[in-house]
Design a protein that fits this description.
CATH architecture: 2-Layer Sandwich
Shape: flat
CATH class: Alpha Beta
CATH topology: rbstp2171
Order of helices and strands: HEEHHEHH
Strand content: 15-25%
Structural class: alpha+beta
Helix content: 40-55%
Radius of gyration: 18 Å
Number of domains: 1
Length: about 140
């Protein structure tokens, strides 16, 4: 195996998952970005900078606030879009960052959605490109 084959085997892609609550399907499908995406990396860098600046000023309350913001901003960066099984309509809004943030902040749905996103994006292997979607098939050897 050579370096180009390793790079090809390591390529990731966005993936779609259906949000489930307590084992029940919701009809809300999220398209998630991998940790390695430029959007997630940018959110991480931005928040690390805020936390570093607050730490240098020894502002504990700002550090705590930045850490909380980071969790939400990172989840938002991981979600590229969503779609509804039955289409957009009453109670099933089109995707927007504003709608996502409102859902993440919801006192009932927010916690399970946060937990779901966190769990789904931790499995790097799930974001690896499948051979049928890869631009070049990689052969072992």
């Amino acid at each position: 195996m050579n370096i180009n084959q390793i790079k090809e085997m390591s390529r990731t892609e966005n993936r779609e998952v259906e949000f489930e609550v307590g084992g029940h399907k919701t009809g809300l499908f999220l398209t998630l970005r991998p940790e390695s995406s430029k959007e997630v990396k940018a959110a991480t860098r931005k928040m690390e900078s805020k936390i570093r600046q607050a730490s240098m000023r020894r502002k504990e309350s700002q550090i705590d606030k930045a850490q909380d913001e980071f969790k939400t901003d990172k989840r938002v960066a991981h979600v590229k879009t969503w779609r509804w099984k039955d289409g957009v309509g009453e109670g099933c809004p089109e995707f927007s960052e504003k709608e996502l943030r409102e859902l993440l902040d919801d006192p009932n749905a927010g916690y399970p959605l946060c937990e779901f996103i966190d769990a789904e994006v931790q499995r790097y292997e799930d974001f690896l490109m499948r051979p049928e979607t890869s631009s070049a098939s990689v052969s072992a050897g």
